[in-house]
């Protein structure tokens, strides 16, 4: 995967799925311990502007954004039109565009919504923090958002609790920061297009 664009806390790469190219943007958002919610929202808007530039430069809207956003799916930066514009269902993202103040913004699908809470298989999020920085207990900071044009390629996303035989969770079912990381990793599966 060759890097095609390097930005502030981002790396965009060209990824081949079948015979088609997809842009994969990897990111590490600004953290809630050092940046308030307005700063993280501002970062999201700046990054969304950068991603629009990259899509124009490479003449494609086939973009997947993956990484530690340091925001939950419901945070404003994730779903503002001028931010990541990421919707909780494929149906919500299916119109393709959302108009805001006379500007059209492309919609993204965020499948991480479906992994929140007790009624899901696996942990209820990717990060656990119950202090003043994490009032919800579980957060879903590690996410993938998929441009509406290729959401049909999305097969599944999983929160990983093991790396092979090595456990990534502690005895409380939370990320084992002492042995691995304070975040659970995610695994995204995309499928090839057969009608190319």
Name the features.
seven-stranded mixed sheet, two-stranded antiparallel ribbon, 3 helices, alpha+beta, 196 residues, Deoxyribonuclease I, Chain A, globular
Total domain count: 1
Order of helices and strands: EEEHEHEHEEEEEEEEEE
Instruction: For the record, give the distance between the C-alpha atoms at the N and C termini, rounded to a whole number.
Output: 21 Å
Q: What's the architecture in CATH terms?
A: 4-Layer Sandwich
Query: What is the number of helices?
Result: 3
Strand order of the largest sheet: 1-2-3-4-11-8-5
Please name the CATH topology.
Answer: Deoxyribonuclease I, Chain A
Residue fraction in strands: 25-35%
How are the SSEs placed, and which strands pair?
Layout: E1 2-7, E2 10-17, E3 20-28, H1 37-57, E4 63-68, H2 76-79, E5 86-87, H3 90-93, E6 97-100, E7 103-106, E8 108-109, E9 127-129, E10 137-139, E11 142-147, E12 154-159, E13 162-163, E14 166-167, E15 186-190
Parallel strand pairs: 3-4, 5-8
Antiparallel strand pairs: 1-2, 2-3, 4-11, 6-7, 8-11, 9-10, 12-15, 13-14
Descriptive report:
The protein has helices spanning 37-57, 76-79, 90-93, and strands at 2-7, 10-17, 20-28, 63-68, 86-87, 97-100, 103-106, 108-109, 127-129, 137-139, 142-147, 154-159, 162-163, 166-167, 186-190. With 196 residues, it is an alpha+beta fold. It has a single domain (2-190), classed as Deoxyribonuclease I, Chain A (4-Layer Sandwich), CATH 3.60.10. Strands 1-2-3-4-11-8-5 form a 7-stranded mixed beta sheet. The chain has a two-stranded antiparallel ribbon with strand order 6-7. The model has no long low-confidence stretch (mean pLDDT 92).
């Amino acid at each position: 995967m060759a890097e095609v664009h390097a930005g502030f806390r981002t790396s965009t790469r060209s990824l081949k799925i079948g015979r088609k190219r997809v842009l994969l943007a990897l990111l590490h958002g600004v953290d809630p311990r050092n940046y308030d919610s307005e700063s993280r929202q501002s970062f999201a808007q700046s990054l969304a502007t950068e991603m629009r530039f990259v899509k124009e430069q490479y003449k494609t809207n086939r973009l997947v954004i993956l990484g530690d956003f340091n925001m939950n799916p419901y945070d404003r930066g994730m779903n503002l039109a001028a931010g990541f514009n990421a919707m909780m269902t494929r149906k919500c993202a299916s119109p393709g565009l959302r108009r805001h103040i006379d500007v059209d913004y492309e919609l993204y699908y965020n499948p991480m919504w479906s992994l929140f809470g007790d009624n899901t298989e696996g942990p209820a999020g990717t990060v656990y923090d119950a202090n003043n920085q994490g009032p919800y207990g579980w957060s879903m900071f590690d996410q993938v958002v998929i441009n509406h044009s290729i959401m049909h390629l999305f097969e599944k996303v999983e929160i990983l609790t093991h790396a092979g035989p090595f456990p990534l969770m502690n005895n409380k079912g939370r990320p084992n920061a002492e042995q691995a990381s304070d975040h659970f990793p995610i695994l995204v599966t995309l499928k090839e297009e057969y009608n190319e």
